[in-house]
Amino acid sequence: MSASHRVKTTLCNTSLDNPTQRNKDQLIRAAVKFLDTDTICYRVEEPETLVELQRNEWDPIIEWAEKSPFPFRYGVEINSSTSIMGPSIPAKTREVLVSHLASYNTWALQGIEFVAAQLKSLVLTLGLIDLHLTVEQAVLLSRLEEEYQIQKWGNIEWAHDYELQELRARTAAGTLFIHLCSESTTVKHKLLNE
User: Fold this and answer.
1) Model-level pTM?
2) Which of 53, 48, 63, 37 is nearest to 147 (CA)?
């Protein structure tokens, strides 16, 4: 069984069984909590090359999230910080995000929480849902510092390659799960007069 298939099966079983007995509001709060520790909001102060890399790669994603009609629709503020305390996220941002996530069903919310946990980023997860990012881009952005270190110090091929492929598979499966659970289609039958 492939990693992707295994993840989708696990997400389906978790959604069916709901072992933690969480309701929709609890699932939304769990997803929003990732904003407090969002990977792309935590920045380093040195070395300058990594500071610049974070700025060049993560700032456009934050700008997209703040200005995009999706997912927030109303314009929000997402800050970054070099402090261990993390960024200050305005209450309005949380309210808009809660309102947006409320439009998803509980199964999709399970998937959103899963993908955010993989990427350690709710903002990157929303970029995937909106098709603003590919899985490969989102995974690379979530691992930016690790990729920087690999470029600097070298790669332990079997370990890093396995971790990267596993993260891609889990993220892709979770994203597909969200889309499948969010898809709303109606089939209309046309009556033909004979």
Assistant:
1) 0.85
2) 53
Type of residue found at 21: Q
Tokens standing for residue 156: 């332990």
Whether the CB-CB separation of 44 and 58 falls below 8 Å is answered with no
Hey, what amino acid is at 76? V
Lowest mean pLDDT among 6-15, 44-53, 78-87, 107-116: 6-15
How many domains would you assign to the chain? 1
CATH of the domain at 139: 1.10.3580.10
Closest by CA to 133, choosing from 175, 167, 91, 101, is 175
pLDDT digits (tens, 9 = 90+) for 92-128: 999 999 999 999 999 999 999 999 999 999 999 999 9
pLDDT for residue 193: 52
Report if residue 95 sits inside a domain: yes
Quote the domain boundaries for residue 175.
3-182
Kindly state whether residue 47 falls inside one of the protein's structural domains: yes
Q: Which residue has the tokens 């040195």?
A: 46
